Amino acid sequence: MKTYQSFLTELFDKPLPYRLSHSIEDRGETYEFKTPNGQFIEVNIIANKNGAYEFTFDSDSNEEGTKSGKGEEFQIFSTVLKILKEFVDAEAPDHFFVEAVSSEPSRVRLYRRMISTFCKKYPEYVATEKRTNSGFIRWDVKVKPQ
Fold first, then answer.
1. What pLDDT is attached to residue 65?
2. What pLDDT is attached to residue 75?
3. I need a surface site. Which of 31, 42, 83, 103 has the fewest CB within 10 A?
4. Crossing angle of helices 105-121/72-91, nearest 10°?
5. What is the per-residue pLDDT for 18?
6. C-beta of residue 114 within 8 angstroms of C-beta of residue 80
């Protein structure tokens, strides 16, 4: 019988096909993919002026039925996590961050799981979570000091 942890890990190991749609050297990259139910997802990795990278993704769907309840959120997060890993392997950034709207608890839980999974696979990174004044939960992921 599978444990809950192994079940969750397996859910994050099934990414969808994606492509790099455009890249601006030393500034950012945009990836895109489509889910089986037709959601178009765009993933952006943008360098800010302090040398950190902001990692964001968004869907073209506003329908509640396609955002949750169909299992696509796991395929989406699995694909986003794979893109993040690919970026980290290629660029080895010192610092990146991810934010989620704090009023969406299911999204916050999934982001938390994604960052936790990432840090387990990349133990040289450590993540800190904090609530911002603007209504977001922010995860700063940095290389551990030596």
1. 38
2. 87
3. 103
4. 40
5. 95
6. yes
Can you read off the two tokens belonging to residue 104?
């969406």
Report the distance separating Cα 102 and Cα 38, nearest Å. 26
Do the strands 53-59 and 95-101 form a parallel or antiparallel pair, or are they unpaired? parallel
Strand intervals (E) in the chain: 19-24, 28-34, 40-47, 53-59, 95-101, 125-131, 136-143
For the record, the structure tokens of 142 come out as 């940095």
Quick one: DSSP state of residue 52? -
Write down the mean pLDDT value for the chain. 84
Q: What global pTM score does this model have?
A: 0.79
In the chain, domain spans? 4-143
Q: How many CA atoms lie within 13 A of 122 on its CB side?
A: 24
| CATH superfamily label, 4-143 | Gcn5-related N-acetyltransferase (GNAT) (3.40.630.30)
DSSP code, position 88: H
